[in-house]
Amino acid sequence: MRYKVFDVVLLNNGNKATILGEIDKVHYKVEIVNNEGKTEGISQITDNDIKDCISKK
Fold this sequence. Notes:
The chain is an all-beta fold.
């Protein structure tokens, strides 16, 4: 599934991430937030890391 900028997704490890940009068709630049609401930083994920889409823009 393709995600757009500012979509919020649930990751396989339980954290949530906001899509900041698309690097290519399967890699995304995201800001990861843990279950406590604290930012863990900006990183790169793939489609395989995404469990579900929480909010679509």
